[in-house]
What we know:
Blueprint: H1 2-25, H2 52-69, H3 73-96, H4 111-124, H5 129-152
Helix pairs in contact: 1-2, 1-3, 1-5, 2-3, 3-4, 4-5
Amino acid sequence: MLIPFELFVMLVLANGAPVVVAKVLKNRWAAPVDGGRLWADGRPVLGRSKTWRGLIAGIITCALFSLVTGLGLIFGALFGLLALLGDIVSSFVKRRLGLLSSGRAVGLDQIPEALLPMILAMFWLPLSVLDGLLIVALFTLSNIYFSPILYRLGIRRHPH
Length: 160
């Protein structure tokens, strides 16, 4: 029964570790994943907020949490990587739609980063499809609800 809770926490860690590390390190080691390149449409491929520092922080945080909880270092690293790849896919799609990195896209901002690692979890762990989808829904709703609160507390740079 703990596995769904642990997976939810891992989604929060993958999403939150880059934010916390950016707050602590400011502009240090903040190289963008896309190298600052533009896509054929003239818009950034991803944008400045998707950094190697954030990617590494999310992967390491998930890997360590997963190791401590007994799910395994490799599972945690892959889980974190997939969560952040889902976030990168969201950013890519948002740029193609003309939305800025601070632009809100309910669902697109949450579902890919929760669904990709949940697919891994459903194959790797004794987790039903229903439980996996419930975790995705819970993460999506909690992200939509708590992001404005974290913004008001000065933890997030944007309210969504």
